[in-house]
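Input structure tokens:
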């Protein structure tokens, strides 16, 4: 079942996100921007958990999560421990929300049109996974470029 595959991939890469956030030698560097790097790793982490909690947790899992997208990019200096806690809660949400989905649910239209057009739930879950990986790669490069002694 594709739901199990998607769940496994989301969990795997959210664990990679946790590893990246933990790998910063200097916690302050999580919030550093430089030259053409306009988003810090901390803000990208907030954005990823906000995005997944909105489009999977709230929409598919009925979690009640209310997104404050502007804060994902404007908040600064959130302690690493808090970021890691948000990642853990997002992993729990993925388990809960995706465990509820059936094959029929995946074939239905996603309940909103965040990309500007109708799409199946399966299609949008694959899109969200790509979005997670895009920003996960950015965080990896951010850490290797800016978290230097």
């Amino acid at each position: 079942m594709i739901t199990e595959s998607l769940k496994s991939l989301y969990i795997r890469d959210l664990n990679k996100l946790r590893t990246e956030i933990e790998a910063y030698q200097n916690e302050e560097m999580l919030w550093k921007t430089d030259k053409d790097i306009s988003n810090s790793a901390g803000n990208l982490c907030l954005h990823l958990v906000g995005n997944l909690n909105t489009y999977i947790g709230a929409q598919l899992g009925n979690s009640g999560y209310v997104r404050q997208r502007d804060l994902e990019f404007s908040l600064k200096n959130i302690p690493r421990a808090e970021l890691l806690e948000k990642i853990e809660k997002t992993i729990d949400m993925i388990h809960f929300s995706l465990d509820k989905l059936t094959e029929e649910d995946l074939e239905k239209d996603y309940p909103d049109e965040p990309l500007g057009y109708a799409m199946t739930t399966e299609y949008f879950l694959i899109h969200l996974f790509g979005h997670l990986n895009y920003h996960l790669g950015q965080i990896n490069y951010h850490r290797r470029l800016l978290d230097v002694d």
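The chain has one domain: 2-146. The two ends are 46 Å apart (CA to CA).
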